[in-house]
Write a structure and sequence with these properties.
single chain, Immunoglobulin-like, 2 helices
Length: 166
Amino acid sequence: MIFSARVAFNYFIKKGAVMKKFVWFLSVVTFMFWMPSFVFGQGDVLQMQQTNIEGIIAEVIECKRKKGILSIKVKFTNQSDDEVSLYLGTGSSYKEFYLTSENKKYFILEDAEGEALAPANINTRLKKGKSHYWWAKFPAPPAEVKEINIIIPKVFPFEDVEITDK
């Protein structure tokens, strides 16, 4: 049997090897790009706001109500060319972080020891293009409330953020 590129090509096409490899490659690439957003909850940006910190933007990436708790996730990104310090306070200053809806304020929930259900502090340095994720748990407003406002120090208010019910 004489081996040639044409014979090999016809053999692999008939066996479907090229198509199988191509489908496998596409599956791996799709998984690589889809999986981080699934794991970290980084789907659609619900709303973006400027901050009073040069080069930093803030994006609400989750506003989910489940079993009486409203979970908020915010992504802070450095869009400047320099490294930037992101400091929004510590757990003791969490009274400045709250939600509003229908003339009522909702503060971050606390555990049995009085610790905020949020990271202990927001104090980090972000290199160009890097992000920092912040989350907090709040008491959920009544089920008929479909939108809330999010107030975070040094960030312009997020207004009319849609609540997703789970």
